Amino acid sequence: MLKIRRLTKWFGSRRVLDDVSLDVGRGERVVVLGENGCGKSTLLQIVSGVIDADEGDVRLPDSIGYAPEKPDIPDHLLAREWLDLVASLKRARAITNELGVSELLGRKVGALSLGQRQRVSLVAAFTGEPPLLVLDEPTNALDAASREAVIARLRDASALIATHDRDFADRVATRVIRLAA
Amino acid sequence: MRSDGARQWSDRSRQARGIAEPDARLPTTMGFALVRALVTTSGRAVAMRAVPLVIAVGLVSAIVFGGHGVQASMVVAMMHRVLGARVAMFVAWVMLASPAALRAFDAPGTITIRSLRPSRLALHATLLAFVALVQLPWIALASSTGFVAGSCAAFLACAATTSLPGFVAALAIVAIDPPAAIAVVPSLAIALFSVRHAWRRALDQRASLRIVRRAPPAVSLAMTYVARIVRVARARLNAAAIVVFAGEGALALTLRNDPDARPATRALAVLAFPLAIAAALLAAPAIEMEARLRPLIRSTRTKTATLALAMILALATPSSALAATASVALAPSVTIVSVAYAVLLAAVVALWARRAARARRSSTFILGVAVIATTFTIAGAAC
Q1: Nearest Cβ partner of B302 from A87, A89, A93?
Q2: Which of the residues in chain B have pLDDT under 50?
Q3: Which of B235, B311, B325, B364 is the most exposed place for a label (fewest CB within 10 A)?
Q4: Angle between helices B217-231 and B263-292 (to 10 degrees)
Q5: Domain A2-178: CATH class, spelled out
Q6: A88·B215 Cβ contact <8 A
């Protein structure tokens, strides 16, 4: 499903990722743990294609579902508009009834709380039933009910997840890896 | 309405948290302080938007009224004579002035002023004065036929640019067009009501018209760019509208001075520059939006051709809509030609904007737009 080989990334003179190799198989949920600044988000950004690696190789399916740590949704768009845009780019049907987003559809993203934005961002990642989910701190701002819904949603999925939430990792992960700083 | 019990609880809660209760005498004894606070918050925000508007309209007026034999009083007389022209010009002005006028009610710092429970009279009168400043060009036009007419026009414009009920009421008066001496008092009342309404509703979350829908990727992206232009970059949209309207005014005047000219050919030559400037003004928010969406674009592996097509559609949509307004003053055949020309120009400017954004050189972009506009002007004149 996902093959990462000898990935290296520099930010200026600081080496953030050093020779990282990792496989995620079908139906496997790999959780990446590590202290702040160890490169978890950078790894997920490279996997999702947001930034490029300096060295190494990433092989992944044609379509993935990526939810960044900070939902990067323009404030002036309605939640419904964002989900429609993502569905259009993925050539899929928009999801409007998961994680309680149906009640947020007509509201501007700028007026949503952080947790509500994260729900919209996660639903956007789920759009099109991608074979691989790449989720960066998916439960950061979620309430208990939404957190449980995300755990249930991930039950049979293939995913690469970065988190600090140990309980979430224990319940979701089929494998846990630790990224050293 | 809060009950006495709730009020007492609130007061006790404030005291318990050590929050001082605002001085009840503040509104009457510190009216000057209130005005000063409003000047530095609402007034400044309004001025930031109003000054470019007043300068731009002033430049257009200088072109229209300078040396072409057209006088402001002639325009006002035509508006009194023709219902359609009266309503169209009023609505156009409201569209131009609203973004600046509405800044008076939600500018940074106004939340604190609200919490001080200011005197309503001083508050509404000051806000009305700020909103009236935005209307200076409109007031100047109406004042060409007298002071009372100017005052009446000022109040109606203030009412229409600040709230929807005010707009409806003002539009009704404009459509009926009663003598200014009769209309001036109700106009003032509507303006004060509208300002009060706008102040009370400014912080409400309003429903927005849905612009982006599920569609082919390029169309959906283009609608996202248009949503940014309409909702965030409205001042740029207004500036683009003013530039195109000025071009159309110039086109009407050149056709009036040279009746033998072919309107379509003249339209291509005269409108090339205004349409290119309009497209260039609207390119920045669209380019910003594309940059903002880069994580999504990259993670969904959206093709470069799709992005280019989206940018073309995004700029062609407002440009062609602005060009279509040529039919207000001219023949439908001119509108078809100018819309087609606007789409073509917007496409070239869109591609150039994406290229300049990649190179991160705004000066190159401006130079390129000038070259594009000149080329299209020459090509239009040669047709």
Answers
A1: A89
A2: 1-29
A3: B364
A4: 90
A5: alpha beta
A6: yes
